[in-house]
Amino acid sequence: MNYCIYMSIFPFLFRVLCEFNFVTKLHFFLSYGKKFVSLHFQNYTKNNTLDIMTLKEIVDKLGATVGLGADKLDREEEYCFASDLMSDVLTLKDTPVLVTGLCNVQTIRTCDMANLEVVIFVRGKRPTEDMVELADENDMILICTPYSMFKTCGILYGAGMKPLY
User: Fold this and answer.
1) Percent of the chain's residues with pLDDT above 90
2) Where are the domains of the chain?
3) What is the pTM assigned to this prediction?
4) Residue 17 in 3-state DSSP?
5) What is the pLDDT of residue 95?
6) Which CATH architecture has domain 53-163?
7) Ramachandran region of residue 78, left (φ > 0), alpha (ψ -120 to 50) or beta?
8) In 3D, which of 58, 75, 37, 73 has the Cα closest to residue 157?
9) Does residue 81 contact residue 149 with C-beta atoms inside 8 Å?
10) Mean pLDDT, range 131-156, rounded to an integer
11) Which residues have CB under 8 Å from 45's CB, separation 6+?
């Protein structure tokens, strides 16, 4: 357990917090004498598994816009994969959310071949009309975020999405 060494100072609080089934980015600021202690918890349940997120939560956390598929945001996703190399995408056995900076028709075609239905474009890139039309034919969801791939992946991981590898 890697909660915090300060928890030994607060055993009662530690027991109470462990009784919660789900603790989300909880920040407790406790005053102990003149020292302040900050305790950080991530999105782990008691059995240390990460949570499944809806696409709506993903869009909110990324400050993103939905280019296509706004009516499907209640869909739940568990895994995420980030790559600009479409050859890597073709090797995927599962169907995660794809985070990519490659914004062209080949991205949509590759995702169709790999059965990926959710694509997040990073660095403020926007799909063209041809991309949106092709994605719509293949029942895909396109999301655009202004963040870099690194920051996007960090936000998603911190919010509970699992990496594919």
Assistant:
1) 65
2) 5-45, 53-163
3) 0.70
4) helix
5) 87
6) 3-Layer(aba) Sandwich (3.40)
7) alpha
8) 58
9) no
10) 96
11) 21, 22, 51
